[in-house]
Design brief:
This protein is mainly α. It folds into 3 domains: 1-83 and 93-157, no CATH class; 158-232, no CATH class; 236-296, no CATH class. The protein is 67% helix and 1% strand. A two-stranded antiparallel ribbon has the order 1-2. Helix 4 crosses helix 6. The radius of gyration is 38 Å and the shape is globular. It starts with a helix and ends with a helix. Residues 362-371 have a biased composition (Polar residues).
């Protein structure tokens, strides 16, 4: 099923007369990600706003996702959405985003409330709320700026695994990453966390290149990130995620040994943010490697067992066969059993000429018979 078909299905599902409100919330959650995968940021904002108003599961997560989509829209307006430079929008739902200043004020209100909305379940916070809290603090510390927040969310939620089949979306994401990298290079001296932002954009660019089948270019992006590991100040989680991307890259190329090395390096990192999210990917890759290893061992066992049951073929020439016949005859002569040709009897019974005459008469009578 394509993203377009999924959007149509979930939109019809939201219109069903269902008394269970959580059912609609699930539909809007899925719709939000479908629109995000299509780079339709404002439609994703509308879905997130519905969740903010109706759902109580995680207000901090919903508010951060809405703010992330708004920030992404300000940096790069998506398909079919009004541009921030316009004074008025044709849709009344966008009235609070008429200007860039109003949009920034709305984002400030969303992010400033996140620390108050944090929840704890069994003494632990939700991983997505931890991301929201950390990013909201960084937003205000960086003069109200975040680097590719919506694409980072898609990457964290493993959305590129689904978007790789939608090459138009991958291409739009790649252009967004390219524009952001060029912007960061121009303003390199103004940003204290330049390498964190640059490596994040480079990682997302590498993922887009991998989805497009450009393996070598993606590998160059990942290698550049690993070379800048000492320059990272905050986003140290990029390093283990980068190792896992390299692991996936070489695994797709069929190099199982190199994939195992990158997997071990990713497991060597400890105490970074989003560690639990990466462990899901590590477990998935371990399963793939074990399955690939079992297939190889099975094929080797089949080849080995097949070679054991094979009977070697020795070519016997005519001369050797004649020699063997002579040996048999010599052995029979030595034993004193003389075989005379007169005593030999034919293998098949003998026929008289009269028998063949009877057969000819039968054939002639059949040919003359009328149908």
């Amino acid at each position: 099923m394509s993203v377009f078909q999924a959007i149509e299905t979930f939109e019809r599902a939201t219109e069903l007369p269902v008394d269970w409100p959580q059912y609609r919330h699930i539909c809007y959650w899925e719709l939000m990600w479908c629109y995000a995968l299509r780079a339709e940021w404002m439609k994703a904002v509308q879905c997130a706003e519905t969740l903010v108003c109706e759902s109580q599961w995680s207000q901090a997560s919903y508010r951060y996702m809405k703010a992330a989509f708004l920030l992404q829209w300000l940096d790069d307006p998506g398909v079919g959405t009004p541009k921030p430079s316009e004074t008025k929008f044709p849709n009344t739902d966008f009235s609070q985003y008429e200007t860039r200043e109003k949009t920034i004020e709305h984002i400030d209100k969303l992010l400033i409330e996140i620390p108050k909305l944090m929840q704890r379940f069994a003494g632990r916070s939700l991983p997505l709320e931890k991301i929201a809290l950390r990013k909201s603090k960084r937003y205000f510390a960086q003069n109200k700026r975040l680097t590719l927040p919506a694409l980072e969310l898609i990457f964290i939620w493993n959305g590129f695994k689904m978007v790789q089949f939608q090459q138009d979306s991958v291409m739009s994401f790649l252009m967004i990453c390219e524009n952001k990298i060029n912007e960061l290079l121009q303003l390199k001296e103004k940003y204290d966390t330049y390498y964190d932002d640059y490596c994040l954009a480079l990682l997302l660019k590498g993922v887009c290149l991998r989805c497009r089948g450009q393996q070598f270019q993606a590998s160059m992006c990942y290698q550049e990130i690993l070379q800048s590991k000492k320059k990272l100040k905050m986003d140290t989680y990029l390093l283990p995620f980068c190792e896992m991307e390299l692991c996936q890259l070489v695994f797709d190329e069929g190099d199982v040994q190199q994939a195992s090395k990158h997997l071990e390096r990713a497991l060597g990192y400890k105490g970074y943010s989003l560690e639990s999210r990466l462990h899901f990917r590590i477990h998935e890759m371990e399963t793939k490697l074990s399955i690939r290893g079992r297939k190889k061992s099975t094929s080797k066992e089949i080849k080995k067992s097949g070679s054991e049951v094979q009977i070697p073929f020795h070519h016997m020439s005519d001369s050797s066969s004649c020699k063997s016949v002579d040996k048999i005859a010599q052995a029979q002569g030595d034993s004193g059993s003389d075989i005379e040709s007169a005593n030999l009897k034919p293998i098949f019974p003998e026929f008289d000429d009269d028998d063949f005459d009877d057969m000819d008469n039968g054939f002639s009578s059949e040919e003359s018979a009328e149908p």
